[in-house]
Amino acid sequence: MKKSVLVLLTFVPIVVGYLVNRLLFAPVIGTGCFLILPLLTTAFWVYLGFQYARSTWKVIPAIFIGNATGILSLLIYIWQMVLETDETRNTALTVLSQMFSGAVPTYLLGRLAILFEVEPNYIGERSMIALQVLSVAYMMVVFLCGYVFGKISKKAAMKQGAV
Fold first, then answer.
1. Helices then strands (H, E): number in the chain?
2. Does this model's pTM top 0.85?
């Protein structure tokens, strides 16, 4: 697969996150989309890591290029939520920066994010930032799993061809 296509495919979680957020309050399909689309995105992210392993990129550049949209989303989120005040915050940037994490099964990571709060069972700024960080870390690990699997299968295929 061409490198330009691989880079374009890194925007899939942002599109899925947008769909999840738009369809969340739709009757019947909203809950299904919230539960199923992030799992499908996870499977796609493993596949994308596999495809990156078949390219000529080394592991570290592949991880950073493959997850650049998530890393950039996280940086924008921290900039808007931590470094800006309510009066100076750009709402469009803040919303856009949360689309990547919308494609992650946050229902699996939510309890872990709450552990960063000082008060028990409270969801505040710390847990929201933790959820964004955990989402990017989750996607990086999933991507890396796909990358490793791709490298292993590539080596096995090369051995089969050599024998």
1. 9, 0
2. yes
127: which 2 tokens?
Answer: 């847990």
Which three-class secondary structure state does DSSP give residue 79? Answer: helix
Give the pLDDT of residue 37: 95
Rounded CA-CA distance 80/97 in Å is 9
Percentage of the chain beyond pLDDT 70 is 99
Structural domain count, the chain? 1
Domain of 44, in residue numbers = 3-162
Question: For residue 111, what are its two tokens?
Answer: 């309890």
Torsion (CA) 32, 35, 36, 37 in degrees, nearest 10: 100
pLDDT value, residue 162: 60
| CA–CA distance, 100 with 116 (Å, rounded to integer) | 21
Surface-to-core class of residue 65, CB atoms within 10 Å of its CB (0-12 exposed, 13-18 middle, 19+ buried): middle
Q: What is the rounded average pLDDT of the residues 151-157?
A: 87
